[in-house]
Amino acid sequence: LVQLYIPLNFMGMLYREIKQALIDIDDMFRIIEQNPEIQDKPGAKPLEIKQAVVRFEDVHFSYIPERPILKGVSFEVPAGHTVAIVGPSGAGKSTISRLLFRFYEPTSGRILIDGQNIADIQQTSLRKVIGMVPQDTVLFNDTIGYNIQYGRWDASPEEVREAARLAQIDRFISNLPEGYDTPVGERGLKLSGGEKQRVAIARTILKGPPILVLDEATSALDTFTEKEIQDALDRVSRGRTTLVIAHRLSTVIGADEIIVLDHGRVVERGNHTSLLALGGVYASMWNRQREADQARETLKRAEEEE
Ligand code: ATP
Predict the structure, then answer these.
(1) Per-residue pLDDT tens for 204-245?
(2) 265 beta partners
(3) From atom 2 of ligand 1, which residue's Cα is the shortest distance away?
(4) Is 141 in contact with 188 (CB distance < 8 Å)?
(5) Which segments of 81-122 does DSSP mark as H helices, in order?
(6) Model's pTM, two decimal places?
(7) What is the ipTM metric for this complex?
């Protein structure tokens, strides 16, 4: 039996490795698809993570030369801290996360991780250390368990469950007829936006990256779901260097620093309380959003009473 077990076990290992390699290749093609001009420099070294400090230094960027999008953006996310980028639609918030992943290169300025310019390091090593919880998660046509396991193939079923529990999706999954083996995606169960986001959070918890980028959902979730997701995000970002791309403001209150971006420039920075006291762009965005939220709640209540 041992004679059979060893080769089978080896084949299992091989299978997992091939699968991981295929995913890496798949990721690689996605990047190449995004921008074939971004190549590793000859002799590029892998990124060495020490504390995971992220730093933007006077970053300028434009997708097309005649339209500058970022006009000298500088900020630092200290190790284990959370920095949120807020600002009006089109201000360049998501562009910042695309540059951090090196989907594009700054026109000038530098992006450093632990003092290493990301333009000089191997792209694969960069993407290994950054976890992303995107606005809209793509699910594979496979089981819900597989979709979480994608974060790390060698995770045990217990670790998958623990990640799901931390992401507040475990109870939902356990109540499904086939539990973690329930098929999802086009040919299976359809998940709501909030559920999909929690699957993405579980995946990221499993991956356990030192740097996190949270690209928050633009669409308004109901208050209960929003709170659940916020709790899950707080858990996953604890102790990690986190950059939050905030399209709504309700989730940035606890951030160590909030950077207000307007027309590609940092116009204000500080924490929630100091920015409200400043009475500038952030304060007016906050008031407008609160009014909109209140109006929505009133409308919902009126509909429920009818
Ligand atoms: P939102 O909150 O609405 O998502 P944002 O602040 O995240 O906005 P970005 O997605 O960073 O904004 O986009 C900034 C500007 O860059 C926008 O005017 C957008 O039209 C433009 N832009 C984004 N992607 C591209 C692209 N691939 N090519 C050309 N222009 C682009």
Answers:
(1) 889 889 999 988 765 556 666 777 777 888 888 888 999 999
(2) 262
(3) 89
(4) yes
(5) 93-100
(6) 0.82
(7) 0.96
